[in-house]
Write a structure and sequence with these properties.
The chain is mainly beta. The protein folds into four domains: 155 residues, Immunoglobulins (Immunoglobulin-like); 296 residues, Transglutaminase-like (Coagulation Factor XIII, Chain A, domain 2, Alpha-Beta Complex); 109 residues, Immunoglobulin-like (Sandwich), CATH 2.60.40; 93 residues, Immunoglobulin-like (Sandwich). The chain has twelve helices and 40 strands. Strands 1, 3, 5, 6, 9, 10 and 11 form a seven-stranded mixed sheet that branches. A six-stranded antiparallel sheet has the order 22-19-18-16-25-26, with helices on both faces. The chain has a four-stranded antiparallel sheet with strand order 2-4-8-7. Strand 39 and strand 40 form a beta hairpin. Helix 4 packs across helix 6. It is an enzyme of class 2 (transferase). Its EC number is 2.3.2.13. It is found in: Cytoplasm; Secreted. This is Coagulation factor XIII A chain.
Length: 735
């Protein structure tokens, strides 16, 4: 701010004043700091040049220098000093003459925001001390030579996170002399999972490398019987990403003084990453039309989304759950909070948190889409962030669920978490935030209910094992899948599971008991539904098998309904109806095949290529209904990525992406994307069309930035075909 712009009012605000000041949300805004802060009238003969004066400050901020090496921040593509809190770092100050400890007095100051205040942690005076105390601010002289000195500076373990401005202050009899504002000495301070006193301390080095320092990850999708995976580029170290993440906290209007607390940061971030009610980062869209935006399946990583939002300040279109979770993971890892992306298969979206999802059947046993409001997502992605929970009783720290996908409001905003995974497992859902909602996502039961003409509801079938069948994340140090279902729930049917449920009900999770409803299932006949491998564009066969365990003959009127569904379990259209009568001989099994033709499903197919089959069978002799439902994913072809020659950092090379169109139709409006953190920035290319059976080849020339093992990730999008991915691990040599 130039002198003319700042009013007298602002100049009167003392640095550490206790007066009411406007809210302090912005890490970017600054105040004017006087180079001479006089104590009173200054005598005429006073010359600041007679006193100790700072000539230069060295921050040792290059990636290969001591600070970034010791603080594990050498990967950040950022010219400023970046350190982690609660751990010492070094700087060097050159004065105009040698320092005399007997007479000279100086100290350092870190300032943040427009209204720095000591009691808010936004004005930090750092005294020169003889001994550094762990986890407390202080500066110690470790080396003196001629006019220079080297200082070791310790920061507080509860220090706020963000970008600080550094000043050196020298005391004179008539006032305080300060260095000029110099943005080159700005210092970012981040969370420190390596420091035992930090709230995000994680004690395993392999886990820290995965959950803080790994800039690529895996998203598991598909469904329980057909787990699919794809890579995602988090890119938390790429240029400007750190600034974009700090901007998110400004956008969420999180008071600067609250930014040392990972619980607060997670809660506000889970709201600001979706655009509902606060113009946050990503606009969700689940309706298969993505005009004026990018289809959720086209994104290959978080960097493009965060940087677009940082520059435009407008929500980026469009995202679905894994996009929200991918960007949230980048945000958390970038600030130094250990984080991982979780997939819950068969995730309940229960509109009234009563631990039951109601599927209403009509007279014929078909699902009534008008009455059915709840849905089962094939999978749903959220995040876990690692931190202590001093706000909860002992034992509920560790992994916390946070979810930025807008499903339901919490305290009036679309956000969810942090909720302790341990509390969810044991049913202690009384502990903040949003534990009952997450508990229902992994523990609900599915009720098949038939409406009688007179309005009574008859429960025909209850499925207690379908929801939350499998909860997974990427394994530490590898691309495989780690099953973490046991972290969220006890074994199905165990005493502990029953106890956890009773605890959750005691703490107010609504659960209707089965006793309230008249429910006597048919126990002597089993029905099973299987499918052969289904490849996009081909016919495939499904099989319904009955096992009659009784000594009676039965006939079953069977109805199969095939629906094209969004991965959220919401139906778009019914493409297959098939009914038949099955004769069930005593003590025997009988199987019935149904062929699903590609011509029946191709025209309406949605991007995740998933079908939802409902099979209901009425045993005519008893009037009882058997029901089974199954999600089938089509196999989608992949992109092939090849490199030409060897890859050397700093030398131009090229990579080839290939794709063969397997469909019986031409692909229109084809877009390819390719990216790799530390290798190349996202490159997009549009192709008009790819005729059936023909192969597209795209060669990209680029210069790899950094040596090491890296990953290239590509995606293809078109009107008829989405969710096509390819990836390649590449070793980039040192020059």
């Amino acid at each position: 701010v130039s002198e003319t712009m700042s009013t007298n009012e602002e100049n009167k605000l003392p640095l550490n004043g206790r007066r009411a000041i406007p809210p302090n949300y912005s890490n970017d805004e600054e105040n004017e700091v006087p180079e001479m802060e006089a104590f009173g009238l200054i005598p005429r003969g006073f010359n600041p040049r007679d006193y100790l004066r700072v000539v230069d400050i060295y921050m040792f901020k290059e990636p290969h220098e001591i600070n970034k090496q010791e603080h594990h921040t050498d990967k950040y593509y950022n010219p400023r000093l970046i350190v982690r809190r609660g751990q010492a770092f070094q700087i060097q100050i050159d004065f105009n003459r040698p320092y005399k400890p007997e007479t000279d007095q100086f100290w350092l100051e870190f300032l943040m925001g427009r209204y720095p205040q000591q009691n808010k942690g936004t004005y930090i005076p750092i005294p020169v001390v003889n001994v550094l105390k762990p986890g407390q601010w202080g500066a110690k002289i470790i080396h003196r030579e001629n006019n220079s000195m080297r200082l070791s500076i310790m920061s507080s373990t509860t220090c706020i996170i963000g970008k600080f401005r550094l000043y050196v202050a020298v005391l004179t009899p008539f006032g305080i002399l300060r260095t000029r504002r110099n943005s080159a000495t700005d210092t970012y301070i981040l969370f420190n999972p390596w420091c035992q006193l930090d709230a995000v301390y994680l004690d395993d080095e392999k886990e820290r490398e995965e959950y803080v320092l790994n800039d690529v990850g895996i998203v598991f999708h598909g469904n329980v019987e057909d787990v699919k995976s794809r890579s995602w580029s988090y890119g938390q170290f790429e240029e400007n990403v750190l600034d974009a993440c700090l901007f998110l906290m400004d956008k969420a209007e999180l008071e600067l003084s609250g930014r040392g607390n990972p619980i607060k940061i997670c809660r506000v971030a889970s709201a600001v990453i979706n655009s509902r009610d606060d113009d946050g980062v990503i606009a969700g869209s689940w309706n298969n039309s993505y005009d004026y935006g990018v289809a959720p399946s086209a994104w290959t990583g978080s960097v493009d989304i965060l940087l677009e939002y940082y520059s435009s300040k407008q929500p980026v279109r469009y995202g679905q759950c894994w996009v929200f979770a991918g960007v949230f993971n980048t945000f958390l890892r970038c600030l130094g909070i250990p984080a991982r992306l979780i997939t819950n298969y068969s995730s309940a979206h229960d509109n009234n948190a009563n631990l039951r999802l109601d599927f209403f059947l009509d007279d014929e046993g078909k699902v009534d889409t008008r009455l059915t409001k709840d849905s089962v997502w094939n999978y749903h992605c959220w995040n876990e962030a690692w931190m202590s929970r001093p706000d909860l009783p002992v034992g509920f720290g560790g992994w916390q669920v946070v979810d930025a996908t807008p499903q339901e409001t919490s305290d009036g905003m679309y956000r969810c978490g942090p909720a302790s995974v341990q509390a969810i497992k044991h049913g202690h859902v009384c502990f903040q935030f949003d534990a009952p909602f997450v508990y229902a996502e992994v523990n609900s039961d599915v009720f098949y209910t038939r409406m009688e003409k007179n309005g009574t509801q008859v429960v025909e079938n209850i499925d207690t094992t379908r929801i939350g069948q499998l909860i997974v994340t990427k394994q530490v140090g590898g691309d495989g899948m780690m099953d973490i279902t046991e972290e969220y729930k006890f074994r199905e049917g165990s005493d502990e599971e029953r106890l956890a449920l009773e605890t959750a009900v005691m703490y107010g999770v609504k659960k209707q008991s089965v006793q309230d409803t008249t429910y006597q299932p048919q126990t002597d006949v089993d029905m099973d539904f299987q499918s052969q491998k289904a490849v996009l564009g081909n016919d495939f066969k499904v099989t319904i098998t009955f096992r009659n365990k009784s000594r009676n003959s039965y006939t079953a009127t069977t109805y199969l309904s095939g629906n094209i569904v969004f991965y959220t379990g919401v139906t778009k259209s019914e493409f297959k109806k098939h009914s038949f009568s099955a004769k069930l001989e005593p003590s025997s099994s009988s199987s019935f095949d149904v062929v699903i033709k590609s011509s029946e499903y191709m025209s309406d197919l949605l991007e995740q290529a998933s079908f939802h089959f409902f099979v209901t069978a009425r045993i005519n002799e008893t009037g009882k209904i058997l029901a089974v439902q199954k999600v089938i994913m089509l196999d989608i072809p992949t992109l092939r990525i090849k490199t030409k020659g060897e890859l050397v950092a700093g030398k131009e090379t090229s990579v080839i992406v290939e794709f063969t169109n397997p469909l019986k139709q031409t692909l229109e409006n084809v877009t390819l994307r390719l990216e790799g953190p530390g290798v190349l920035r996202t490159i997009k290319k549009q192709f008009g069309r790819i005729p059936m059976n023909s192969t597209l080849t795209w060669e990209v020339r680029f210069i790899p930035m950094r040596p090491g093992l890296r990953k290239l990730i590509a995606s293809l999008n078109s009107d008829a075909l989405r969710h096509v991915y390819g990836e390649l691990n590449v070793q980039i040599q040192k020059p």
